[in-house]
Write a structure and sequence with these properties.
This protein is 44% helix and 18% strand. The chain is an alpha/beta fold.
Length: 248
């Protein structure tokens, strides 16, 4: 089924989202730095009829209006929580990819009673990769592994958001210390990593899982960073099963 588009007026402006119907706990998907819900829509479409699944455009990206201030992980998490309340979505499973994992983790800690579980797909940022030259080289390597279709989609999103906001979202991700947040995430948590993801090396995925009080790690063979784009079917099965188990 084609995802249904919606918009909601929040404090910062309009926030856009897409939804497919389904059973069980709602799933809300949050994209990475500089891009839009196009990064998570393949997963949402793969879950149609199985879970009520949403893909959101964070403020300043995709079809959501931009706030006056620079993006921060904390600010994006607050906007996500405001959107959940506006939509009346109770205790969802929040899934984040890349920067989205940082936003999801912050939201889970800021409003633990409002978030049922979390999925961290390709969590960022590994402290060993925070130096800009190192991070840039790993971004280039991942772009090669993800292929031209993913790159073209990303470039279109970058153009829409504008170079300055894209760079500031990358810097916000780099400056955020997710390792300080993870021990406070009390909800059931699934960590997903592609086996060929240079931005989330195996040792970092294991550390993220160890820091989570209720974390579990699954590695998806042969996949790069953008798992929701390159492997929506396998990821949908993993997320579907986890989201249902988490509410038992």
């Amino acid at each position: 089924m084609e995802p249904r588009r919606g918009t909601d007026e929040l404090a910062h402006g309009t926030m856009a989202s897409w939804c497919v119907p389904g059973q069980g706990p709602p799933l809300v998907c949050v994209h990475g730095a500089g891009v839009s819900s196009k990064q998570t829509l393949p997963l949402v479409e793969a879950l149609s009829g199985r879970l009520e699944a949403w893909a959101v455009d964070l403020p300043g990206f995709g079809e959501s209006t931009a706030p006056d201030r620079d993006p921060t992980v904390a600010g994006l998490a607050e906007a996500l929580l405001e959107w959940l309340r506006a939509r009346g979505i109770a205790r969802p499973c929040l899934l984040g990819l890349s920067l989205g994992t940082q936003v999801v983790a912050e939201a889970a800690v800021r409003a633990p009673e409002e978030v049922g579980s979390v999925v961290l797909a390709g969590p960022t940022v590994d402290p060993r990769l925070r130096a800009l030259p190192v991070l840039a080289s790993h971004l280039v390597l991942d772009s090669i592994r993800e292929g031209p279709a993913v790159a073209v989609s990303g470039v279109a999103d970058y153009r829409r958001a504008g170079a300055l906001r894209v760079v500031r979202s990358w810097l916000a991700s780099r400056e955020h210390r997710i390792e300080r947040v993870l021990p406070k995430v009390g909800q059931p948590a699934l960590v997903l990593r592609g086996s060929r993801d240079p931005l989330c090396p195996g040792h970092w995925a294991e550390e993220v899982t160890r820091l989570l009080p209720r974390g579990r790690l699954v590695t998806v063979p042969g996949q790069p960073h953008a798992l929701t784009v390159t492997a929506p079917g396998p990821v949908a099965r993993l997320v579907h099963d986890f989201a249902r188990e988490a509410v038992r």
